[in-house]
Amino acid sequence: MAMRAGHPCYFVGFLPEPVPGQTIEDIMAAEAVFMETVIARHPQAEGRPFVVGNCQAGWAVLMVAAARPELFGPILVAGAPISYWAGKRGENPMRYTGGLAGGSWQVAMAADLGNGVFDGAHLVNNFENLNPSNTLWSKQYELYAKIDTEAERYLGFERWWGGHVLLNAEEIQWIVDNLFIGNRLATAELVTKDGVRLDLRNIKTPIICFCSKGDNITPPQQALGWIPDLYDTVDDIRANGQTIVYCIHDSIGHLGIFVSGKVATKEHREFAHNIDFIDCLPPGLYEAIITPLSPEDPGAELGIGEYAIRFVGRQPKDILALGGNDLDDERAFAAVRRVSEINLGLYRTFLQPWVRSIANPTLAETLRVLHPARLQYTLFSDRNPFLAPIGPLAEQVRAQRDPALARDNPFRQLERTTSEQIVAALDAWRDLRDQLQETTFFAIYGSPLVQALLGLRASDEPPRYRPGRQPEELRFVQQQIEALEAKVREGDARIGVLRALLWLALEERTADERSFEVLRRLRAEHGNVPLDVFKRVVRDQFSMLVVAGREALEAIRGMLPEDVEQRRRAFAIVRQVVEVAGGSTPEREQRLAVLARIFEVEPRGGATSAGAAAATAEAGPGTGPESTAAKAAGRARAATAAGGR
Hints:
Mean pLDDT: 84
CATH topology of the domain at 24-98 and 167-320: Rossmann fold
Number of helices: 31
Low-confidence stretches: 605-645
C-alpha cells in the first residue's frame, strides 16, 4: 500500500536465530542506525520517514522514537500493546496469564532449558489457547470443507504463523518483566543503560494507533490506555506539542489488522494516502473516522478512493469511556508485579543453578523439535517413515475423487451441523475457563491480605507510578507561550486565511481530508512551501489560537490587504474549504459570519440571522462545543504550571 501510494518503502525484519548476547537495547540501537541510513538515502525528502510497527514492533518503534525522536516522522502502530494491564473484565483474559503463572519465573526456566534461548512457539501457543474452537477444530474443518480452494491459503498462513522466532533469554525476560507484567512503558519508568528515560511524551511527530474491538490479544484499552496514563486533558497534549490519532475497527481480529487482504485495507490505505495531512494536524487528540464517499457528497472530487477520512477531536476521558481498570484492578496487577519479582528471585537463587547444569544445545533442540506447535506438522510429514504410503494413496484419491457438491446433500448438512455443535461446545468450555481464570486471579491478587503482605496497603498513593513534568520542560513551554504571544499580530494574508481555518477546526473539533486537499492545492499554487515549513506554520498558528484566544482571531484583520476584492477572495477560500468538508450547517454559518466581520466582507448569506451573528461575534473565539479559546489558553497555562499529573 505504501508503494502504491508512491512512497519508497523499506522493511525491517528479524532472523529466526538471535545474535548471541543480543538485548532489547541492541535492537533499539540497530533500528536507529537503520533509520539514519534511510534518511541519508533520501536527502530531498520532506520530513522524516513514516514508520509502521505491527504488534510487538509497535512498542519497539515507540521506544526508539522516545529515545531518538529526531529520526521519526509520523508513526503508525497497529495492534500494539502499550498499556499492558488495561482491559475489561469478562473480555480480556490474556492479561491474567502472568499472574496465574506466578510471574515471569517460568519464562526464565523455559529460556534456561533452551540453553539461553527462548522458543517463540510458547508465545504462539498462548495466542492459540485464546480460541480453542478455532485451534482444535474450525481451522482444520474449514480446510477440508473447502479442500478444492482452501489449501493454498491455509498452507501460506501456517508457514508464516509457524515460522517461530527464537529470542535470547535476556530479551524475553526484559519484555515480560518490564512490559507484560511490569507495565512500565506507558508511565515512563523505563531507563536505558545510558540513562535515557523512555518517555512517550518525547515523541513530537504524530502517533497513529490502529486497534480493534474484535482483538482479544491487544484490545483498544491496551493500545490506547497510555494516553490517559500520560495526559489528563487534551490541553496537556497540546501543551506538550503532541499529535495523537487513533482509529478503532469494530470487529477485525488481531492478526487481521496486519495480514487481512480485505477487512482492514481501507484503514491502512487511508493512512498511507493521507500521511501528509496527518503530519500537519495541529497538536491534540483525534479519532480517525473513515466513511464511504459517494459522488453526491460535498467535495467528492477531492477525495482519494472510495472513502473519506476525517479527524474528530477527542479527550483522554473518551478513551477511558471505552472501559478499563479501576483502582482495585490496578492494585491487583501491581500485586502480580511484586509476586513476580519475589518468585523470580527465588527461582534464580534455588532452582536456576540446577536447571542450567542440565541444559545443553542437544536438550534445547530436542525440546524445540518436540514442541506441540511443531510436532503436529512433523508427525504428518515426509520425516515420518510410517507415513510413506500416504503420498501414493493421496494421488489415487485425487484421481478417483467424486466430490459431494450438492448443497442439499444430507451428509454435508449433517457434517456442518456437527461442526457447529463442536464449535459451540468448545466455545462454552473457553468461556467457562476464562471466567474461572478471572475469578481466580482477582481472588488471589485482589485480596487485601495478599496486597498487605506485599506492601501495597502501606500507602494511600495509587499503585502505579504517574510521570510528572521536569522543571526544565515547564520553563521551555512557558518560553514558547511567551514567544507565540509576541508574534500574534505577525503574518500576511495567507497566514490570516490559515489562522481562520484553524479557528474553525478548533471550534468544530474536526478536520477533513477534502479540506486538506484544497489547502494542498493552494500550497502548490503559492510556491509549494516545503512540508516541514508548512507543518511548523500550522502548529504555530494553532498554538496562538489556544494561547491568545480572541486576540489571535481579531489579529487576522491586520494581516489582510486593504483591497476589498482581495479580502473577498481570501474569505472565499475559507468558505470553499468549509463547504467541501460537509456543507453548510447553522453553527458553521454562525462561525463564518464571525470571520466575515473580521474580514470586513459580506458573509453571502452566511449567518442565519443578524442577531445570531452579532451574538457569536461578541462571544469571540472559542464558542464551540469544547471550550472558549480563552479558557483553553488558561487551561494550557495551568497544565504547564502544574505539569499535568
